[in-house]
Amino acid sequence: MSFSSSHSSEVPSTAGQPPVVHAVDLTHTFGRQRSLVTALDRVSVGFEAGRFTSIMGPSGSGKSTLLHCLAGLERPTSGSVLIGGTDLARLSDGQLTTLRRDRLGFVFQAFNLIPTLTAEENITLGERIGGPLVDRQWMAHLVRVLGLGERLGHRPSEMSGGQQQRVAIARALAHRPAVVFADEPTGNLDSHTGGEVLSFLRLAVEQLGQTVVMVTHDPAAAAHTHRVVFLRDGRIVDEVRAPSPEDVLRRLAPGRPAA
Fold first, then answer.
1. Alpha carbon distance 223, 244 (integer Å)
2. What is the Cα–Cα distance from 146 to 66, expressed in whole angstroms?
3. Which residues are CB-neighbours of 41 under 8 A, at least 6 positions away?
4. How many Cβ atoms sit within 10 Å of the Cβ of residue 92?
5. What are the chain's domains?
6. CA-CA to 198 of 20 to 30 Å: which in 75, 106, 143, 146?
7. pTM score, whole prediction
8. Mean pLDDT of 63-88
9. How many CA atoms lie within 13 A of 109 on its CB side?
10. What pLDDT digit, counting tens, does each position of 127-162 carry?
11. Residues in contact with 75: Cβ distance below 8 Å, sequence separation at least 6, in sequence order
12. What distance in Å separates the CA atoms of residue 14 and residue 131, rounded to the nearest whole number?
């Protein structure tokens, strides 16, 4: 295997591309003493710039915890996360909030749009809460690519689920973040609409130069990405590049030995 669980402090190779995000010896535990649960067990992994990467694993494998630690939504018990050279462990809560607002983008299973705001107002929400101003030329390009031109004046209740998720993607990309973190972004969508949303995310990577890290449980969704990282019991056990759904299913098969 080209990738395996690492218990060293070195970040695994990412095919020659510098990682925009990487974790080193990342550990996250919950509970105390006899009820202690290790969600992440000294995980070291890097994510290349300009690539679409998915994180997969069975329930309880630690994939959502890993995403939340990478995105600064949770603080790990030990180890470090670096985004563009910034060590998140060295930031105060206020600095971490500012970094998330200004340098990261988020797309969730729940669209998390403000119901009283129009699509355009939701897309520019970051600047409304003190973040960087959105370049209107860049926003117009996003709107065109995502097919939202006729929806900018609509509120979420006036849009389909797929349209709402496209608005959420535009909002995540509006300030040109260093990386977008997506947590089951197609979980509330039918397969056709979900496929369209994943195609938009891939398009954002390949035509707009974005970096996307996504948690998913769906092999078909993972097949839209350039690379899949597999977790089991809080450790990285495998990876595959240019995945097909069949590649993913084989690696998720129960009883498959860790790499």
1. 5
2. 29
3. 27, 62, 233, 234, 235
4. 8
5. 49-58+91-252 (3.40.50.300)
6. 75
7. 0.87
8. 94
9. 10
10. 988 888 999 999 998 899 889 999 999 999 999 999
11. 69, 88, 89
12. 31
